[in-house]
Here is the input.
Amino acid sequence: MRLKKGGYEIFHSPFFVNKYEKIFPLKIKRITLPKNFKHKKMAKNKNNVVTKEDVVVKFVGDSGDGMQLTGNLFSDTAALEGNDLANFPDYPAEIRGPLNTIAGVSGFQVHIGHKRVYSSGDMCDVLVAMNPASLKSNLKWAKKGATIITDLDTYNEKAFEKSGYTINPLQDGSLSDYNIIQAPITTLNKEALKSLNLDNKAVDKSRNMFALGMMYFMFNWKQDKAFDFFAKKFKKKPNIIEANKLSLMAGYNYAETVEAMSVTYNVPAAALDKGRYRNISGNIATAWGFLAAAERSGRPLFLGSYPITPATEILMELSKYKSLGAKVFQAEDEIAGICSAIGASFAGSMALTTTSGPGLSLKSEAMGLAVITELPLVIVNVQRGGPSTGLPTKSEQSDLMQSLYGRNGECPLIVMAASSPSDCFYSAFESAKLSMEHMTPVILLTDGYIGQGSELFRIPKVNSLPTITPPIAMANDPDYKPFNRDPKTLVRKWALPGTEGLRHRVGGLEKENGIGNVSMDPANHQLMTDLRFNKVMKVADSLPNQELLGEAEGDLLVVSWGGTYGAVHTAVEDLIKEGKKVSHAHFKYIMPMPKNTETILSNFKQIVVCELNSGQFVQYLKMNFPKYNYSQFNKVQGLPFVVSELSDKFNQILKEI
Amino acid sequence: MQENFTVERSRNPLTKNDFVSDQMVKWCPGCGGHAILASVANVFPKIGYKKENFCMVSGIGCSSRFPYYVNTYGFHGIHGRANAIATGVKVANPHLSVWIATGDGDSMAIGGNHFIHIIRRNVDVNIMLFNNQIYGLTKGQYSPTSPMGSVTKTSPQGTIEHPFNPGELVLGAQGTFFARAVDTNVKIMTEVMFEAAKHDGTSVVEILENCVIYNDNAHTAITSKDLREDNQIHLKNGEPMIFGKNNEKGIRLGQMGLEVVVIGENGITEEDLLVHDQYSQDPGIHLMLAKMTLPYYPVAMGVIRSAMFSTYDDLVEEQIKYAKANSTIKNVDDLLNSGDTWEI
Ligand code: SF4
Here is the structure.
């Protein structure tokens, strides 16, 4: 609180209000476990323990069933067991869809592995479906023979009707290909929590932990791990901790007793590099990568942004770090988001704007302003299904051409794409570095799939990250002119307002190279157009060579870019193991491309470009390197690639070569 | 300005010459822009900040060429976005004195959204709104402030749109500072701009500007020599509202709002007149003053409102200061290692 001139008091917002208080109205006293209560011991005889390389588990239920938390706890436990992992939350477009309907189904998929895991997996080995609607909508994602755990108590006429079943799927034989465990979860959970005197709503809230308990048994995990999570997560809510504990134990004991689980799994720890790890989602990683770049460059972070699915998380995340000096401006619209960032960049900040497809369209004109003023700026586009509003919660790679060319005039900028949730950290860091060091806007493409998906992240030390040295003009530099350039990189200097002796003007009108006065001179316009293009192309001098999985030459080169890395990598790796002459080039730098790109392309009989659009990158490659044999594999369904469809396609091409 | 975030002052006194640009001023001869430029040249040295700490931002339009004509840091933006760009400049560096040159097309039409929101947030910038009631740069189309019925190149039969009164818009958007001046009176314009500079928060100065080419004499009823005393009232804080050729008229607050009265008639004395309080928090009277239009009222000139509220950029700095003092996350290494992490 402080006093302004006019005598008005300004209060800080109450940062420490406990927001769960109202959402979770448990009207109960602190409870303790019954005196004679004993924790069940681990099952002594587990005959059918199957050791697995990797397992995919999917948790699905109503939006209110807590599937995100369940999935997260499952994944955190696997992480503590030393597994590699990748997760993907699958939210409905509605915040809370109607109860028991397919529109209201929310899911969370976890892929854990002894081997390295590159994506959240295609089809699941275990499906936990909390009601008929979630079973109906997700059965197609279960492998034949998968174990399906479902809550028998939710199977009633009303729920069938709402989910579109005409008869009970548990009784009509339609699930005979699966190992179905019909557990009366609601009833058993109620029974287990009887001693707590909770109201029905509160009791049913912990059904998800009953299901998680069953999974703990299935994966031979110790329950204490979950208890530790509860203790941390609900620190100030002892009653919730106890309820969750009792539910989890009840689920565990139930699984052990009914012996319905013909097999249990053991997924040994993965051979991961030594180090400190955490779980991270792509959007959070993006935010953190920028914070690291701000610290490394010494330029304060400014984000101008407007909420839009699925990019909002980056805005929310960066809003939390005022302690790191991050200035986050929630603008009145997308245009103000980018324009405020351009203003901040002019004033010397490491400036960002974050958005998704429709927002990128709105920012087009201002991107041109950043290009012509040659100011650093990173535009993050967390791609979603388009055109127009399209599929806001689904993923696609269909904004590539827009990113490359979607502006008026000759308007080149750097375009790069992150390949996985943890790579978002490094891509964000690098986009900021390139943007500042080369005084140019950068579009960083991620997508809803990697933005919301998460995986293990080996925590780097900030001082081990590359240095960032923006070309800041020195005070009273007698030679300073706004558009004087470094002869090698063509980069102009960044003169920050407030600095003595560097007063200058920039703007959207064409400027005379060097001196920077407004110029309508034809030859100068040609020169500046060429300079702006060549400046961006010269960024390739500082890019690493394009990497390749597999041999440097062979029959088939699989090309992909952005968020499809995991699935494509896995498919190619499998084929290489089978002895096929296949290699994989996954592109991160799209404009400009790494210098060895053409060499790579030239060494294969056939190239197949896989992307979640109708063929935008393949067109770009054909345009730049027309000599080679391209084919393409595309999908525009709002869904990521699955490994099997990729392998099928590659095998088919290999046959035809 | 608040203690920590003040704009640094110049050590030596500055003069007009410190801000003279080497660029040719390309406005039409007789354009009101020249007078506004003269006022700025007067007021910048008077404000006394270091010349490197001024930053001029503009959008698109005749008015928006302004940054090229003063030697400060300058940013010539795109149409309508000056207010958004300037927000970024000021938030990024609160040590700058940020000035926005914009017009009725730039800020009332294409940039209307940014205009109301910068005002609502009370970002500490100074907006010079050149209101010539026409699109000059595109050669004579009606603007959101053109009076209804205006015949222009896109309204050959007269406009059928209700115009904005910028003052009403500013106060509706919770503006903390609004002043009005005419381009024919450099002295008053300079005074008003100085007041704007002193104000913490978004200051909007509406300048009734004459476009000699496409909308000549648009403001003549207000500005012409023989009419101006009767058709303008110069508001001065703490003084009764008096106007007219012989200072014989005044403004009184009646039952139904403001009333023009003649001093001496019906027993009215100076005592009955409204006394201007530009610092009042309540915008009620300010709104009535801003709305006064011919022929029933004189048009109010000078500072109509200058109320004290917290500014956006101050609060940003306050929150950062608070977070730095109280957060356990002091650097990015802390952040990366926060929450659930484990060793492998
Ligand atoms: S067109 Fe009108 S507003 Fe533009 S410079 Fe000429 S007189 Fe001024």
Q: What stands out?
A: The two ends of chain A are 74 Å apart (CA to CA).
